C-alpha cells in the first residue's frame, strides 16, 4: 500500500462514517487527515507576489499564483502521524480519567481505536 492509497482509504472511510453518523470515527479520521495535510505543508521562504486581483482583496492574480509546494510523505511517515494521533488521544484520555471525566476519556479511547486498522494496512 502507498501513502496515497492510505489517504484515499481514510477519506473513503470518513465519508462512510459521516453517513452512518459515527461521531467518534468522524472526529478521528478528520483530525488524522488534517495532520497528514499539515505535515505535507512546506514553509514558504518568499513572500507572495505583489500582483493582486483588482476584484478580490488579498487574492493573487494569475493561474497558480498562490499555489504552494507540498512535501511527499512516505507510507511510514503517514503511519507515524497516525501513531502520534493515537498517542495524543490516549495520553489525554488518561488525563481526563484523573479529572473524573470518564465519558470524555472513553470517547478519546474510541477515537484512538478507530485508527488501529490503518496501521496494519
Automatic annotation (TrEMBL):
What is the protein's name according to its record? Glutamyl-tRNA amidotransferase
Enumerate the InterPro entries for this protein.
YqeY/Aim41_N (IPR042184)
Superkingdom, taxonomy of origin? Bacteria
Native organism is: Jiangella anatolica
* Region (Disordered) residue spans: 40-63
Ranked from the top, the taxonomy reads:
Bacteria, Bacillati, Actinomycetota, Actinomycetes, Jiangellales
Amino acid at each position: 500500500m502507498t501513502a496515497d492509497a492510505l489517504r484515499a482509504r481514510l477519506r473513503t472511510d470518513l465519508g462512510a462514517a459521516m453517513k452512518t453518523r459515527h461521531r467518534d470515527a468522524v472526529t478521528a479520521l478528520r483530525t488524522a487527515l488534517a495532520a497528514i495535510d499539515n505535515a505535507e505543508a512546506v514553509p514558504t521562504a518568499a513572500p507572495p507576489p505583489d500582483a493582486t486581483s483588482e476584484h478580490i482583496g488579498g487574492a493573487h492574480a494569475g493561474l497558480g499564483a498562490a499555489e504552494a509546494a507540498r512535501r511527499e510523505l512516505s507510507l511510514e511517515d503517514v503511519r507515524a502521524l497516525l501513531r502520534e494521533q493515537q498517542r495524543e488521544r490516549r495520553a489525554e484520555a488518561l488525563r481526563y480519567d484523573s479529572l473524573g471525566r470518564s465519558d470524555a476519556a472513553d470517547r478519546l479511547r474510541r477515537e484512538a481505536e478507530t485508527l488501529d486498522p490503518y496501521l496494519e494496512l
